[in-house]
Design a protein that fits this description.
The complex is a heterodimer. Chain A has four helices and 13 strands. Chain A is an alpha+beta fold. A seven-stranded mixed beta sheet of chain A has the order 7-6-13-5-12-9-10. A four-stranded antiparallel beta sheet of chain A has the order 1-2-4-3, with helices on one face. A two-stranded antiparallel ribbon of chain A has the order 8-11. In chain A, helix 1 crosses helix 2. In chain A, about 45% of the residues are buried. Chain B has two domains: about 160 residues, no CATH class; about 120 residues, Cyclophilin-like (Cyclophilin, Beta Barrel), CATH 2.40.100.10. Classes of the chains: A alpha+beta, B mainly beta.
Chain lengths: ~210, ~300
């Protein structure tokens, strides 16, 4: 469960599947470990937490012991309330929209795709890939699609997309292999702003269809 | 103050990297060869977090607008003005009006140019390091005049210092690179450790794709994306290793057979495409940390 990732990081495995309970534990542990002496920064993911630590002054075992102590508190801790965001989406209105392909390959209408995608709340399981990219789940099975055979070299910033049991939003113009179903004008990442990131890992997102 | 006359290759500002935003998916960036960067700043009397210019796989020529003290470190480069060749790993005095060229030769990929006082570059998310994929940082153009801060002392005293690099690191194109077993080490046999690999043509600041004997895995289930670091060695579905470098994404979905230790990242960074022969050797976390701490005592 505690594995070294090189000489200055430690990977904590809390499970091995995409699951909201496991991911909630990841984020709770992450919250407990903030501002801990010796821990420089952390990367919560679906079922793991990566700890980057100060290896000049701390050994792997010192950090491991520190984390183990916090994990005992974790089991007693109440789950904190997550921040919630509403994201207005123009479904089908992205450059390169795949929404019709999604509908036809799932034997449902475009309206069904919009309804299914926007009816539930998604948790941000982790952020990665590019600055500010939220990996969210769990997508309804009726919308599960494989990634594109060949990733696009350019996906427009603000594109809302799905792949497997996940949904996400591209914060920047970037390459991408997910199926694009809509577009939002929200700016997820603005490095010049006081609050450069709109979302944090662990937050909850609800999509609102826009005419 | 330096005016950029011409350049080729990958030129960027770098400092110690962008810390504290990996959980939002922001790569750390910073130097490909952290040791060379560190010593470049030291030679000209700068603090460790001063901004330097990283020169990758190309040349740069500039003209000094004022007298200044410079140092160039790294591997695979030479430094010239009209008359002299300046050795790497030394600081030297440059007079206003001089042209200086940092020129790529063989034996490495990356050089670091430090100026006494440090380059004066705006910070984004607490760092001046460039991360061009996301448009973070200040790009460098031909014709730009690069400003610097106030030197930490008299220029004449900062010039003509040298650093005994061989005592700390032996750059080589046939290195043995120490690694620590990765979280998914058990998915693979010993092929990776028993064969030589070389750097492929496909490499950049984000990752080094290696060429060599294919690494098989009989493990069928895919990995759920998780955090990774500079030095993480991912094995693709085609069985080829990719070593993540300074601009590594913060998370990845391929299994990690091993992680290059910090102390040896500079050695790997300077391995050349197609001609290098790299052997990997597994060591313990404690050994790796001892080695890193020794290098930090410069």
């Amino acid at each position: 469960m505690f594995k070294p990732l090189g000489d200055s990081a430690l990977l904590i495995e809390l499970g091995n599947k995409i699951d909201s309970v496991i991911n909630q534990r990841v984020h709770s542990l992450n919250a407990l470990l903030q501002n801990t002496n010796g821990i420089l920064e952390t990367v919560p993911a679906y079922c793991t937490l990566l700890i980057h630590y100060d290896s000049l002054n701390f050994s792997f075992h010192q950090i491991k012991t520190l984390v183990e102590e916090k994990m005992n508190q974790l089991n007693k801790m109440n789950q904190e309330t997550a921040r919630r965001h509403e994201v207005k989406v123009r479904y089908g209105n992205a450059s390169n929209s795949d929404i019709e392909i999604v509908a036809s390959s799932k034997n449902i209408s475009v309206a069904d795709v919009i309804q299914i995608h926007s009816e539930k709340e998604y948790r941000i399981y982790m952020m990665g890939f590019t600055p500010g990219f939220p990996y969210m789940g769990i997508l309804d099975e009726r919308l599960e699609m494989p990634r594109l055979q060949t990733p696009r070299t350019l996906v427009q910033a603000g594109s809302v997309a799905i792949a497997g049991s996940q949904t996400g939003i591209y914060p920047l113009d970037s390459p991408g292999g997910w199926n694009i179903i809509g577009w939002t004008q929200l700016k997820l990442f603005d490095p010049e702003s006081e609050t450069p990131f709109l979302f944090s890992p662990g937050d909850v997102v609800k999509f609102i269809p826009e005419e | 103050m330096l005016k950029v006359i011409d350049f080729s290759g990958l030129i960027s500002f770098q400092d110690l990297g962008r810390k504290g935003f990996q959980s939002f998916g922001v790569p750390v960036s910073g130097a490909m060869d952290w040791f060379a960067q560190r010593v470049a700043n030291e030679l000209v009397g700068n603090s460790k977090d001063a901004t330097v210019i990283e020169i990758g796989l190309g040349d740069i020529t500039f003209r000094a607008k004022r007298d200044c003290v410079l140092a160039v470190t790294g591997a695979g480069f030479e430094v010239q003005n009209y008359v002299w060749t300046f050795p790497l790993w030394t600081s030297f005095y440059v007079r206003a009006g001089w042209h200086v060229q940092i020129k790529k030769i063989s034996g490495g990929n990356w050089a670091y140019l430090a100026i006494a006082g440090g380059f004066d570059v705006p910070q984004v998310l607490g760092s001046s390091s460039s991360y061009s994929r996301a448009g973070i940082g200040s790009p460098i153009h031909v014709g730009d005049v690069l400003q610097n801060g106030k030197p930490n002392g008299e220029l004449t005293k900062l010039a003509a210092r040298d650093f005994p690099v061989q005592k700390f690191i032996q750059y080589s194109q046939t290195p043995t690179i120490d690694v620590i077993a990765g979280p998914q080490r058990e998915r693979f046999d010993n092929t990776f450790f028993e064969n030589e690999y070389t750097l492929s043509k496909s490499f950049d600041r984000m990752g080094y794709r290696l060429e060599g004997k294919e690494i098989e895995s009989n493990y069928k289930s895919e990995l759920i994306s998780e955090g990774m670091t500079m030095g993480s060695i991912q094995i693709t579905n085609q069985g080829q290793p990719i070593v993540m470098m300074a601009d590594s994404p913060t998370t990845g979905g391929y299994p990690k057979i091993a992680n290059v230790i910090r102390a040896d990242l500079p050695l790997l960074a300077q391995c050349e495409s197609r001609t290098s022969k790299i052997q990997f050797r597994e060591i313990s976390v404690n050994e790796a940390q001892d080695k890193y701490r020794r290098m930090m005592k410069t």
